[in-house]
Amino acid sequence: MAANVGQEHNSLADNAPDVSVRTTCASLLLYFEHTYGVARLEDVWARHRPSLSLEYLRTTTNFISLRFLESLAELLVKESGDVHFMRKAGLFLASPEALGFAYYMLRAFGSVPVCYRKTIDLSPSFNRVGHFEILRLERGRMELQYRSRVPEINRNICELRMGQFSSFPTIWGLPPAEVHESQCQVQGAEGCRYHLRWMDPLPTWGRYTGLLAGVVGGVGASMLGLGPAGFTVAALGLAGVSLGNWWDLRREMRRKDEALNEQAKGMMGSLEELQQRYDEMFRINVALEDRVASRTRELTEANARLETALAKQKELDRLKSEFFDNVSHELRTPLTLILLTLDSLMQRGPGELSPVILQHLETMNRSASRLLRLINNLLDLAQMEAGKARLRYEPLEMHGFLSSLLVPFHVAAEKKGVRLKLEGAPVSAVLVDVPRVESVFQNLVSNALKFTNQGAVTVRLYEDDTWVHVEVGDTGVGISAQDMPVIFDRFAQADSNGTRRFGGTGIGLALVKETLELHAGGIEVTSELGKGSTFHARLPKGAAHVREDLREGKEGEQVARPTRRSDLTALLAPAAPVSASVMDALPDAPDAEASPDAPRVLVVEDEPEIRAFLRSVLRPYYRLLEATNGDEGLQMALKERPDLIVSDVMMPVMSGMQMLAALRDAPETVDTPIILLTARQEVDAKVEGLTMGANDYLGKPFSPREMLARIEAQLRLRDAAVRAAENERLAATGLLTSGFAHEVRNPLNGLMNALLPLRESLTSGNLDAGMALAMLDLIEECGQRIRGLAEGLLSFVRTGSKAVAVDLGASLDASVQALSWRLPPDMKVDRDYQCPEPVWGDPGSLNQVWVNLLDNAVRAIKPDGVVKVSTRREGNEAVVSIVDNGVGIKPEHMDRLFQPFFSTRDAGEGTGLGLALCQRIIMRQGGRIRIFSDYGKGTRVEVRMPLEANPDRILPPLLSNARPTQPHWNT
Question: Which residue in 792, 578, 833 sits closest to 704, CA to CA?
Fold first, then answer.
């Protein structure tokens, strides 16, 4: 009902007859004018433009709506910035300016109680939305209640009323009344209840009594003849009035003294109470400080203990990680020997071994493979616990995946007489790490078959809006109630009794649960002992669950390698994994040792047994070098320069990674292919090895045939790299030869043209000595030009291993001259050489760089374009800049410019090896090369070479010497 009334009221105008201007706006506007000035009030009105004017609000007979009053109050409070503005404005009501003549009438003939009663009796005339009710009225005290039929928005009007009630005693010069509000309608009460307390003025009967006594005394004195009647009456009346006033004032002073004494007593009591509280607070504070100090000491000690425990825990985690790494290495090493030996024996086939021996070998192979799987499961759990697990997200359609996954299990199911079936239709693809999810469902299905001796194992597949659900149900022995809470704990088993009918390590289901949770999924189990179990796994749909912090690598992401450790893959694309068909095509090992011209392979392995096995595998095909640790392998590689290195990772003295870094830093072995052997199968370990410059990574245990195939692939890639580099050099030489042929044509024509007149002059009998001498001079000049061109070409393509002084200006001029025949007539080549100091390097290789870079610039610009070639010195470096105003390079291609076989030209117009070789040549001579480009505006190539003078410096080879390219296999 109140809400309906409020809604009806909201539709009324601002000048609705709700409250009188005299009792509300008068005090508000007067107080604002008195405090802030009339100009400020007019400025507020001009800025906010209320619907009612100041003239309207200053007319005391007008009315306004309650909503307008509330908005006006909120505006004035905001403009004043005083949170107590409404209470202070209410106190301004009991002033002559606000009440006018009524102020003096009340002061002369009224009293405080009468004023309160009359105000409440007359309230309906100035407040038509609410009414007051006096609940209790006593001497100096009153309790009243106010109810409004229109709910008020905030407490501003409440504060105004309280200020007005407080102001009434001030009319008689008394202190303002104390007003307290015990309940408020704005805060949900039925009405506003106010409690008032004030000080009444003393009755002034003393002056009247004195006047009466003086008049009576004056009459009596005049009757006694003490003086004239008028004089005696007036004199004694005045004296009586004065005496009465003195008596009234004395009573007032006593009353004030009593009030002051009461206040003093109250203040003393308050002071004593405050002192007591202060003492209590002081004692509490002292006790609190002691407790805080004690607690601080406890926390400090606890923090110290926690830090010690944390450091100890970190150390334990580190030791645990090292332990698992060592366990991985130590367990995989004998497993490698076992599996390699079994594989080697099983390759002989039934022709050499009896069926019984082959059966035993297969049994041993299965057991060793099972042991390897258990080790892998342990390491996976350790990875997840350490937070090192990484996921390679791929879309997977579960129906097809489960169909193929169940194929090998059908054989085991048929042997046990158990039906194995898949129910459900194809569902939406999910983003998962496929190998890890495959391990999950292999565990679930194998467990179901292991614990089911009759009946069926059913895999059900279905989906809803959020999840893809897979249920693996069986009719086996079931799980007891006491085992259900720990079924997914590590190293816990449902078959926990002493009979141990079913084997296992107790990590399979723990790995299942943690793998699913890693994919933001989950698993639950329901089971009834003797009737079977159902495992319910779920995987999320969509991509919201993909965690970038767990992603192994973004799609298309490649492992970046340090530039100065670049190897053959800097010239060739990374080799694809060796396929099974390639390994199967490899021939059986011959009995004889490798031929003298076979490639040399260095084997670095600390385990004598594995080293001996590798020797037996590799000896028929390669000439072998052996080392027992990384340091020995490093020294042997630098001395013997093998064609390929096969190295273990974890070794004494120097690890395989440390040896790899040293080999990639040495110019002699920067291109030597290196294959790492390790028991660590983690992706991070592989990425680390490949990032440091390894060519391939082979995990233990491995197949001997796979190793041979990978070695063969790396050697062939090496031969291909050498041939590709040589072809690129021949292409540059062909370009120079074409320029030489173009340049030599003119002097050759001049020489041939001079020979004919000279022959005629010598054979005609009329020898013209002047003409003959002129022809000989012309022939000599043309010959000198041809010889100069030939020598320039020879120096241009000649390479050496020893650094010589190279004049950059002359080298660049020769390169520009060699390409001049390809320049259109309107194309300009501006040269600005500011570095006269020579650099020390290989002039032939440097000329190949300049020709390649200039040829790229010429191809990139229009026929009327400009190529700027300049040199300058910066510190201890010479800087060569080749700038063109051509088409530029696209931003997405900038990071791939020095990758092998990448070209921005159209297909068939280049090999994509030019810039890769340029980078290798400049790095070989201790320099750097960078390319800057603004697409559509041009390109700048900057080459920096050291200016150090060292004529004895030996340059490392551009590429290691190539071996004979005859097949390493007789295929």
Answer: 578
